[in-house]
Amino acid sequence: MSFFEIHDPAFGRFVLGNAPVKQLASGFDWVEGPVWFGDAGCLLFSDIPNNRILRYTPGAGISTYRAPSNYANGHTRDRQGRLVSCEHGTRRVTRTEMNGAITVIADSYQGKLLNSPNDVVVKSDGSIWFTDPHYGIGSNYEGFAAEQELPCYVYRVDPDGTIEAVLTDFNCPNGLAFSPDESVLYVADTGRMYHDDPHHIRSFSMASGRPQQSRMFHSISTGKADGIRCDTEGNLWSSAGDGVHCIAPDGHLMGKILVPERVSNICFGGRAKHQLFITATTSLYAITLNRVGAQTP
What we know:
Layout: E1 4-6, E2 22-25, E3 31-37, E4 42-47, E5 52-57, E6 61-66, E7 72-77, E8 83-87, E9 92-96, E10 102-106, E11 108-109, E12 112-113, E13 120-122, E14 128-131, E15 154-157, E16 163-167, E17 173-178, E18 184-189, E19 200-205, E20 212-219, E21 228-230, E22 236-240, E23 243-247, E24 253-258, E25 263-269, E26 275-280, E27 283-288
């Protein structure tokens, strides 16, 4: 069985012919938001409809990290190693302190409630960037059905707590990632609920410290881009309807990792950040690559 599609010969160096796509656990409803904790040797990820954050520990399997989770979706770590989470149920972004206390990073903008924060990254200057589509308030499946008070924006929160809508022309911004040198911001647009909207990823120059010079970076051929991550050489890895797509820095498709379920999100982890963890509909998967993830810490 082949786990790969090679569209650029260079992709053959990124994958290992004897490294399979392994299903690590299954039986969930809709899993999302994987984040690797190297210092704890575990992966956290969300099972959104079941209102819980789960922990996968190699050799030990699945356990519950937090339940209820306020229908948490995407996660990352800040520069101090703390968990930063997007919560659909409370319509907010939070940080889990080292003592377990929860700090609210953002829950409103200009006096109106956020929609349902979806994915989040932290830049090296400590600023927190997150997307706010309306998926979590569109029904009671991944949160609570509620009125939408704000358009679907991309936000930046400064270390002093100042919040700014930095991108305001998306249908529904979803996954986001910085290039390894933070000179480029990538944002996926998955479109409005129940509509056949964009399948693309846009890129922005960060030369001024704010995203500018928007361009259409890549259009996903099967399904839509959701979660995205970069490796250390600047290749962008994106979730898709048929697996994970690897996209070169110039925007061309290099290859695919084929997964039997629709992929929602990904992250690099493992002892050398050379494993790609994949959340896909009802299951958690992983594959070992000849690549290293760029995210820190």
